[in-house]
Amino acid sequence: MRNILSKLQQYYYEIIKVFLFLIAIAIVIWVSPKESFFRYEFQLGKPWSHNDLIAPFDFPILKTEKQMEEERKQLLDNFVPYFRYYDDLAKNKKNDFNKLFSEQWIMHLGNNRQKDSIKYARIAKKIYDQIEEKGVVRYDPVLDGKTSTSKINLIKGNEVTKTDLGKLFSVRTANDYIQNKLKGFDGEDSAFLSNVLTRSLVQNVIYDEKRSKDGMKELLSHIMRVQGLIQRGELIISTGEVVTPKKYQILSSLKSEYEQELGTSEARRMIISGMILLITLLFVIQFLFLFIYKRRFYDSVKNILIILMTQILLIVITHFIFGNFPQWTYMIPFAILPIVIVAFLDAGIAIIVHLITVLILGFYAPNSFVFFYTQFTAGLMAVFAVQKLSKRSDLFRASLVVFLTYMAVYVSMLLLQEGSLESFSWDMTSYLAGSSILLLLAFPIIFVYEKLFGVLTNLSLLELSNTNNPLLRDLSIKAPGTFQHSLQVSNLASEALHAIGGDALLARTGALYHDIGKMGNPLYFIENQSAGYNPHDELTFEESARIIISHVIKGIEMARKARLPEPIIDFIRTHHGTRRVEYFYRLEKKVNPGMEVDQSEFLYHGPIPFSRETAVVMMADSVEAASRSINEPDEQKINDLVDNIVESLMKDNQLINADISLKEINIVKKVLKKKMLNIHHVRIAYPD
After folding, report:
1. What is the pairing mode between strands 159-164 and 151-156?
2. Which of 114, 265, 344, 688 is the most exposed place for a label (fewest CB within 10 A)?
């Protein structure tokens, strides 16, 4: 058990990295579409770019949506609506009619003409019964546009009969019928009877919405989706043949049938298995590339997180747009991925990660080949345009370069596929322009990553290395000697790291800030002292050592107060490692011979350097500081000085955590020797 725990502890960071890749694979698989897709791409009016296509199985030719809509419209236009005759409505109203007639007769004519009253009542009832028996249709919008010859289905009880609309009364035609029947009566009697009948009429033929909807549904269900059949082995389309509307519908039908056949649970399992295998393989390639060829970047968990977070975020957003807004596909700023990775890592990683990402997305993108070619080319050009993103203008330049690349690819594809620019679309141009402009989102993303992961880009390092920065300006005023020393160290470290392939700009910037703690007590450091006065003369050696050591702690405090990034503070922490303040330690031993000196009072608190950059700054700092004590410097003295200092640092185990090889240390020594000779204006002695 102990051995297992020991192994886990030993490979802790490796396990974390593998785990991060597994999480990335799982997320990408989860968000990727699980449906099958047709492997051939085709567009209406464009040549068929694949091999001759033979029908792999029998399949029906489906009607187009336009055809289906036309058939639906035609059926609905000819649909005969249902109306229901309500006999009870007229019967109920008939009782009210008798009462109304008697009341109105007495009101208008009094008790006179009783014989006429009976006669007129019989005539009015007859007219009423004739109208209500035939039926009075209540108005409904479904009747708009109908004529007297238009058919309706009339439901009476359990019987349905198809009849002309004109055979039924409307309110208007019922009134006309009443007036016609009363022509033989004098004006007063006619008006009386007309009023009573009109007020008594009931609209007893009413539109039956439910029955009509059911009828429409049943009618539409009889529409055939199929308009023909393609048999297995039949040639569908030849290479180079233009995809006509007819061919397009046949191909669409094949695609639909193909995807339907692959929609079974067994086929779905196979599709998902293939997707898992493909995505896993691509991420394994990415992992191996980092592990084998970019080990320096692979060793940092932060770098892996930056790569995978950016990659997954882009894939998730893209799949969402593919599924919901496919027309916006070319608005997505895919080139933002390599730009962000270049800013934090390097161009090689950016290109490979972009390639892997575009390959994954290309399987689901509409018109996969054009998508892949367009986005990969644009991503490459973005990498070339930003280089290391040292200036804000680099991103604006990259945005312009990407847009020009997009347009070049778009135009070339039109010419290649169609032989003309007739299909040139300004809408597509606007999408490509929008995608290029959205690349400027790299600014806030980089800012968030810097804060989130505590890493720096060249952009931030250049801003920090500006000597007009408040902290550096204060250093130049309060401790001018220290400021000059820091400038020299930054130049030395930068040159050395250029030579070994390290981050020269990071070391240059870190070196500028490594001694800011000396501003607290500048006169206690020899580079700031004027001739004739040394405040250490008034202190014990232990007190002097304590002040010298404290500049590291004060530097860290000042850096935190100024909100310097952690990678810069690392140079302040590590530039003396855990070494002794040798000068005062030896003086203490000299004045107290035979007494045991407490070494802890003379030791810096560390930590020791843990990167090539912090290690080189330690070497450059030690060499530059010691070189000022050389009398009449020459080539031999400077060579010996550099060799002795570096050997001393290695002997004190100050470089063991720095991931720097002996070969690289020797290169650093050569650079330091050469630069120190230039600084001290020593002519190199060439052999005879």
Report:
1. antiparallel
2. 688
Tokens of 65: 């949506």
- β strands within 467-523, DSSP E: none
Rounded distance between C-alpha atoms, residue 279 and residue 272, angstroms: 11
Residue 53 β-bridge partners? 237
Q: Which two tokens stand for residue 205?
A: 């033929």
Closest by Cα among 311, 230, 404 to 31: 311
HSE on the CB side for 388, CA within 13 Å? 14
Compute CA distances 236 → 42, 250, 401, whole Å: 13, 8, 42
Amino acid at 126: K
- Residue 299 and residue 425 in one domain: yes
User: Is residue 62 one of the residues assigned to a domain?
Assistant: no
Looking at residue 252, its pLDDT comes to: 81
Residues 6+ apart with CB under 8 A from 580: 599, 602, 603, 604
Q: How far is CA 391 from CA 398, 458, 566, in A?
A: 11, 8, 22
Task: State whether 92 and 208 are in the same domain.
Answer: yes
Residue that has been written with the tokens 């010298």 in this structure: 548
Residue type at 278 in one-letter notation: L
Domain span holding position 325: 2-35+266-453
Q: Are residues 473 and 331 in the same domain?
A: no
Q: Nearest-CA neighbor of 300 among 346, 336, 357?
A: 346
- Phi/psi for 183 (5° steps) reads -60, -35
pLDDT (mean) for 397-423: 86
- The token pair that represents 45 in the structure block: 């009016």
Residues 532 and 598 in one domain: yes
At 211, phi and psi to the nearest 5?
A: -65, -35
3-state secondary structure of 226: strand
Query: Which residue, 414, 435, 453, sits at the end of a domain?
Result: 453
Contact 334, 314 (CB under 8 A): yes
421, 311: one domain = yes
Report the half-sphere exposure of 463 (CA within 13 A, side-chain side): 9
* Contact (Cβ atoms closer than 8 angstroms) between residue 387 and residue 368: no
Whole-angstrom distance, CA of residue 157 vs CA of residue 87? 9
What distance lies between CA 587 and its chain's CA centroid? 64
In the predicted model, is pLDDT for residue 622 greater than 80? Answer: yes
Question: pLDDT tens across 261-279, in order?
Answer: 665 556 667 778 888 999 9
Establish how many alpha carbons lie within 13 A of residue 560's alpha carbon, considering only the half-sphere containing its beta carbon.
8
CA dihedral 43, 44, 47, 49 (to 10 degrees): 20
DSSP state of 538: G
148 pLDDT higher than 60: yes
**Entry pTM:** 0.67
CB-based contacts of 172, cutoff 8 Å, min separation 6: none
Q: DSSP letter string over 143-160? A: GTT--TT-EEEEEETTEE
Compute the distance between CA of residue 237 and CA of residue 41 in angstroms, rounded to an integer.
13
Residue 58 lies inside a defined structural domain of this protein? no
Poorest-pLDDT segment among 265-269, 310-314, 435-439? 265-269
Q: Is the separation of the CB atoms in 446 and 458 below 8 Å?
A: no
Give the pLDDT band of residue 687 (cuts 50, 70, 90): very low
CA 119 to chain CA mean position, Å: 89
State which of 433, 453, 473 marks the end of a domain: 453
Residues 684 and 686: their CA atoms lie apart, in Å, by 6
CA 273, CA 32: separation in Å to the nearest integer?
12
480 domain-assigned = yes
Residue position matching structure tokens 């070189």: 627
Does any domain span residue 314? yes
Co-location of 551 and 624 in the same domain: yes
Hey, what amino acid is at 15?
I
Same-domain status, 551 and 658: yes
Which position has the token pair 């050009």?
381
